[in-house]
Design brief:
The complex is a heterodimer of chains A (about 325) and B (about 325). Chain A has about 325 residues and is mainly alpha-helical. Chain A is built from 12 helices and 2 strands. With about 325 residues, chain B is of the alpha/beta class. The chains are: A mainly alpha (about 325), B alpha/beta (about 325).
């Protein structure tokens, strides 16, 4: 039993071992791009927030109509309050309190708690959907380049068809058929978003395929599987990382857009859902829409900055 | 002959390209005997490398295809056997050392990873054992501090070291046959001498049978036992190396030998064979060499020359000897 385990570890270890020297080298190159570092810092902060934040904030689902529409700290608004006894509206000034630093929405839910739990969901959506898309795109792209001939043709024409298909319409269709379930939405984004990745990786692998070390790998008796996964894909890993970093914001935005037009999953408060709820009360409580909007904006920007920085760092031709 | 361990007969490898059919190898015959070093000699584009790749079917397919002939190894026809059977042979029974060590090593894997991988594909040994074996092999190739080199990436090694790593990789599963595709072309003269020494050593110590591909007759004279001279995808002359050098029969072979500079005489110009290698899509009719041949006759333009056995170990394809 233990020996078996040891053998498995030995088998897996060389595949998992990180090349610290190379990582250090790329970090030195990325570090020179200040925007990329800023983006990375923000993302680390966001991930930490999404993971441990919910343990410290209030319950984001707790409804309290006594405390509805409280503005963020430092802001004050005039609110008209209906008084049952006198049957008249009185205006009163409400100021933000530290109990709700980012205010509350029209149902009295704490905005900070909602933003934090929304971060968790939006990031998960981005990571999972991108993961699906990247894996599919990598396999299809690399396979297409490696096999060549009619298989390449078939796979690439399929990719073309997928590319021309209006994917947003497909999402709407899926929501229409299966209902607005977040899992389906994520799956749908992932299953349609791989086309660009496939094309990029195909073109990269095409040039790699003719390199002598691929022939050498075959010459040592490696199977096609081994050649693809052990010799081809590790050579395009840097490209995959860049593509993934640059496509996560697109996915997060797609989910937000879907939520915004009312096709999101109402049971899971992603930023898009909060934003959509906020747009109805822009007159009375502008912060409910603005806060998730700012978060989306910053997150997308951070991913893009980081992606650009990584692309430059991984590109041996650029001298930064 | 009973000690023949690989026999290639009438091998034809064509590439079906848009521009036409490239007959890279068009009827090559030779046999490799146990423990000998057989040299495939010829200019660029004469089909040496494709012949070597054909033995393990390593050319790109499509467009390449073996359209005829046999490659017999232990009763198995490598030209027709299944890919699964072929994979058992690749790297294990027949190994190949490529010309450019720089590009034949995967840049993102360490030297150790690559050697160990090959060992573990063919041998039932665990990781530690395979690593030890890899280190031993590197030491045998004269690489200092082999243990450390195992964790290096290819770009951290010099050209000569990389070439030695490649040879170590080729030998890692104790193959019976080693095919070396111009292993001395991409390195400088001192490294070249060292690598030739390694091959010489291997022949003595391991009784390894080698197919050595080169365009350099000086190298052939140094390490070859027998040589096959190739031209236009065909073998034009086969004989013992000493016989080839002292008594070349084919005008192309004599041309090649005359091209070698003689240091004892001072000349203003080096001799060369006039013309260039023929376009493989449109081979000249008759003997492929006739447009460049100083002794060409009328029949050379019309008929392909037959194979003539001039002595027990010497055969040549030329109309001069009919």
């Amino acid at each position: 039993m233990i020996r078996g385990l040891q053998d498995i570890i030995r088998k897996v270890r060389p595949h998992l071992r990180l090349n610290t020297r190379l990582i250090n080298y790329y970090w030195q190159r990325t570090k020179r791009n200040k925007l990329a570092v800023a983006g990375l810092s923000f993302l680390i902060f966001l991930v930490a927030l999404a993971i441990i934040g919910p343990f410290f904030t209030l319950d984001p689902t707790e409804v309290n109509f006594e405390e509805k529409n409280i503005p963020p700290v430092g802001f004050g608004i005039e609110q008209s309050v209906y008084n049952i006894e006198t049957d008249e509206f009185t205006t009163k000034e409400i100021h933000g309190t530290w109990r709700h630093p980012l205010g509350t929405d029209s149902k009295g839910r704490d905005m900070l708690a909602m933003i934090v739990s929304g971060a968790r969901i939006s990031l998960l959506v981005g990571l999972i959907a991108t993961g699906i898309a990247i894996i599919l795109g990598t396999i299809i792209g690399v396979l297409s380049a490696y096999l060549g001939g009619w298989a390449d043709n078939a796979l690439m024409r399929f990719t073309d068809v997928m590319m021309t298909f209006p994917f947003f319409l497909l999402l709407v269709l899926i929501v229409f058929i299966f209902g607005s379930n977040l899992a389906f939405i994520v799956l749908a984004i992932g299953l349609t978003g791989w086309t660009g990745t496939a094309r990029l990786l195909r073109s990269e692998s095409l040039s790699l395929r003719t390199r002598e070390f691929i022939t050498a790998a075959k010459a040592m008796g490696a199977s096609d599987n081994r050649v693809i996964f052990r010799h081809l894909i590790p050579n395009v890993i840097s490209l995959i990382i860049v593509i993934a970093t640059l496509s996560i914001p697109g996915v997060i935005l797609a989910e937000a857009a879907l939520s915004f037009i009312g096709l999101g999953d109402p049971t899971v408060p992603s930023w898009g859902i909060i934003l959509e709820a906020g747009q109805h009360s822009l007159n009375t409580a502008w912060w409910v829409a603005v806060e998730p909007g700012i978060m989306l904006f910053l997150t997308v920007l951070a991913f893009n900055f980081l992606g650009d920085g990584l692309r430059d760092a991984f590109d041996p031709k650029s001298n930064i | 002959m009973e000690n023949v361990i690989l026999k290639v007969s009438d091998l034809k490898t064509y590439f079906f390209t848009r521009g036409g059919i490239v007959k890279a190898v068009d009827g090559v015959d030779f046999e490799l005997r146990h423990g000998e070093c057989l040299c495939l000699v010829g200019e660029s584009g004469c089909g040496k490398t494709v012949t070597a790749l054909s033995i393990l079917r390593l050319f790109d397919s499509p467009p390449g295809e073996i359209v005829g002939g046999q490659i017999s190894r232990d009763g198995l026809d490598l030209a027709k056997c299944s890919l699964r059977q072929l994979r058992q042979i690749r790297g294990n029974d027949i190994a190949i050392v490529f010309q450019e060590a720089q590009s034949a090593l995967n840049p993102v894997l360490t030297i150790g990873d690559q050697i160990i991988e090959q060992i573990r594909i063919h041998m039932p040994v665990d990781y530690t054992r395979a690593r030890d074996r890899a280190a031993t092999l590197l030491k045998e190739m004269g690489i200092p501090s082999a243990e450390r080199v195992l964790s290096y990436y290819p770009h951290q090694l010099s050209g000569g070291m990389k070439q030695r790593v490649l040879i170590a990789m080729g030998l890692s599963c104790d193959p019976q046959i080693l095919i070396a595709d111009e292993p001395t072309t991409a390195v400088d003269v001192t490294i070249k001498a060292q690598i030739l020494d390694i091959f010489h050593e291997l022949k003595v110590s391991r009784q390894l049978s080698t197919i050595f591909i080169t365009h350099d007759l000086a190298v052939v004279a140094e390490i070859g036992d027998r040589a096959v001279i190739m031209y236009g995808g065909k073998d034009v002359e086969t004989a013992q190396v000493s016989e080839i050098i002292s008594n070349p029969k084919h005008p192309y072979t004599s041309g090649l030998i005359e091209c070698l500079p003689d240091v004892s005489k001072s000349t203003d110009r080096l001799t060369s064979i006039p013309g260039t290698t023929p376009n493989p899509i449109e081979m000249p009719k008759g003997c492929a060499f006739h447009p460049r041949c100083p002794k060409a006759m009328k029949i050379c333009k019309q008929q392909e020359p037959p194979e003539i056995i001039t002595s027990k170990e010497h055969k040549v394809s030329c109309h001069l000897y009919t």
